[in-house]
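Researcher: Predict the fold of TauD/TfdA-like domain-containing protein.
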Amino acid sequence: MSSKTKKLERTMNAPAQVAATAVRDYTQPAAHPDLGSEVCVHLHPEGVPLFIEPVSERLKTDFAAFKAWFVEHEQAIEALLHKFGALRLRGFPVNGSEDFAQMMAHYPSADMGYTGGGTPRAALAGKVFEATRFPKNIRLPLHQEMSYLKHWPLKVGFYCHQPSEVGGATDIGLISRLESLLEPSFLERIRRHGLIYKRNFRDKYVESDDLLHPDLVSLHRPWQEAFFTEDRAEAQAACEKMGLEWRWLDDGSLETRYRSSGFVNHPVLGTQHMFNQANTMNTIDSGVNSINWPAYTERYTHRPKPTECTFGDDTSMTHDEVMMYRQAGHQATVIVPWQKGEVMLIDNILVLHGRSPYEGERNIQVQLFGSGSHG
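Model: Structure tokens for TauD/TfdA-like domain-containing protein follow.
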């Protein structure tokens, strides 16, 4: 580890101390005039996230006091979220799913929940879900939550109940940074034509998990799990409510199709940003920490792929285009290891998120808030 990395790690893990005079850019821990005297803030060197930490013993140890503070300062927290894109609440007394649910109870839940979501996960407490069960050896590229659907959450909350022994960070990155790294012609093509998402959900009674290679189980979801029903009619109704075209295939699988603009306007800031998952919906051999490519090609060369994203004129993206997207995402990625009890809140348009590969047990929990729409 380089001396620069060691210095950065010490800085990120050191106890917060309030500066005598607030630093406007918050590169050093400082009080914030809109958050009161019991906390300090400081900004990650790469511009995201903004850390908020308690300096009073009361907010470090009393969950009821912390929750009251969090609700009282909702407007200030919202303003900071729109300015910085991601807030990391570190050192507050959040100890379990119930605490995580309670502290966020004043936020409106996302209407869609995880119906039609791309990866498997289970509900834990109320609107709290486990993070994706995607294989731990695979890196999840940066993406915006459920941007491949008509309706999607405006905010995503994360809670670390147990950090993994090695790796396992919830990677984040600014959409403005990602956009600056992509070829302008690629962005313009999305803006001009939009995108089409094609997805296939297998029938778990025709092709159970044990018939698939282990690395493909979480990639190719059964429609019964994705739509939380065993009834075809209910799955169809869910598709129609979500604005998806659908059809049943002879193998019992459900195929869906959705056309998206690929860009959205931020509902508060009014700025337009790329908003899609063209990088994650196109499965390619991207090297280390990617999907098992031999197993994937053997399985899907002559079968419907679990996911695919094309340009709106039905032209497929090339391998080089998808790799460019992923490499840009990698360059935009900011990795901050989790600490037990931390909560992170992100603006789903301004900040993308992913997951580093990891070893050992990991328990990260998620909530979705607010509802946006492609129109």
